[in-house]
Amino acid sequence: MFLSITVSASNITGTEPEVWDEWTRYVSDLMAYDKENPDPLESINRKIFVFNDNVDRIALSPLARGFDKVTPDVAQRGIGNVFSNLLEVTTIFNDLLQLKFGQAASDSGRFVLNTTVGFFGLFDVASAVGLEKNNEDLGQTLGYWGVGAGPYVVVPFFGSYTFRDGLGAYGDIYSDYISDISHIPTRNQVLGVRVLDRRASVFAAEGLITGDKYTFLRDAYLQQREYMVKDGVVEDTFGEEDTEWGDEDWD
């Protein structure tokens, strides 16, 4: 696929506007990829998935289990709350980009309340007083404005994305406070704790995986992202292949 992009680019001739128009059409076609085939790169994705799964099994999962064992539940909740509070800035920024001004005001209130009364987000005071948490990111913002998801990809070490959400995740780095920490060892330590905390938080959900692990996680990711982009207004088709019962199954 990347070779075809290079070849196509080398064949483009003409003025700069013509080159830009050609590139714009290509990106538009890519982002509007047929939803019936969201994984055209499956053969490559599966290889990367196996690599990531091995890294998780050999290194990340054991470290996360150790973190889970030595860190009391109350401390884990506090750590998770702090990282969640830092991401409120990203959510507020994307609230505004999606013209959700009421939600932006609510999320701003959450951030201020949890940062002050909640001791820098250690305690989720805002939820206790009725300010519900929202999650918005640049991938959702692009989807809100009509940008298609594009093909599903598995990124080494980082996992599941679509082309749109991968681009959005890169943009979200600039609204992540942790990326602004200038002292590199400190920044890496904070990022390391966040990775371990996130990995430890999904141990309980692993028992829900059925059938082919790659397919299950891909479909779950794509449905979750569609749900988030459309604010919950989606057609639920996840797992329908496993639950198609005929009348004879009820006899």
TrEMBL record:
Top-level lineage group: Bacteria
Keywords attached to this entry: Lipoprotein, Signal
InterPro entries hit by this protein: MlaA
GO biological process: intermembrane phospholipid transfer
Keyword Metal-binding: no
Keyword Methyltransferase found: no
GO annotation, cellular component aspect: membrane
Family (UniProt): Belongs to the MlaA family.
This protein's name: VacJ lipoprotein
